[in-house]
Amino acid sequence: ISQCHQQALRVGDIEYAVFSSHMHCQVMMLSGSHLAVANKLCDVLSKEMIRLNQVQSLLEHSSIHNMVLQLAGGDDTAFDFPEISFKSEDEVLDEAESSGKIVIANSIYTNRVMRAFFFRNYNYAKDMTKKY
Questions:
Q1: Least confident of 39-43, 72-76, 92-96
Q2: Which residue, 37, 31, 46, is CA-closest to 118?
Q3: Which pairs count as long-range contacts for 118-127, CB under 8 Å and 24+ apart, including other chains?
Q4: Residue 99: CA atoms inside 13 Å, Cβ hemisphere, count?
Q5: 3-class secondary-structure state, position 132
Q6: Is 101 helix (H, G, I), strand (E, B) or coil?
Q7: Residue 121 has what pLDDT?
């Protein structure tokens, strides 16, 4: 994935570079990779998104990072960046819904359903899938 990220940056496709790395983080989490490794990769990618001024992608990615942290039993520090004004996933979701950023909102909802399944909260997951 690093090679894909570097090649995309080399040709100037910043959005694809960020997207490919984001998907790699998501696959690591879903495939049961070691959560400490996934957390480190998510953290590195978050900093890269800030460096590349990809704040909208960072908001969506932070939801995945938040899930990795929760699965590992850690604190919610995925939104702890001075470059963004949001301090929680709920704040990002509220802003996404009110401003019509449907992709970010749907990503957060999807991550919440996945999180509910991971934690065996099946009724919540079922309710979320009916609601959204």
A1: 72-76
A2: 31
A3: 118/67, 118/71
A4: 11
A5: coil
A6: coil
A7: 92
CA distance linking residue 112 with residue 102, whole number of Å:
15
Compute the C-alpha angle 62/60/32, nearest 5°.
Answer: 60
95 — pLDDT class (breaks 50, 70, 90): confident
In DSSP notation, 70-84 reads HHTT----TT--TTS
Q: How far apart are CA 44 and CA 21, in angstroms?
A: 10
Q: What is the CA radius of gyration of the chain?
A: 15
pLDDT surpasses 80 at 9: yes
Question: For residues 47 and 8, what is the distance between their CA atoms, to the nearest angstrom?
Answer: 17
Contact indicator for 17, 8 with CB cutoff of 8 Å: yes
Query: What are the two backbone dihedrals, phi and then psi, of residue 75, each rounded to the nearest 5 degrees?
Result: -80, 160
Instruction: Give, as one character, the DSSP assignment of residue 120.
Output: T
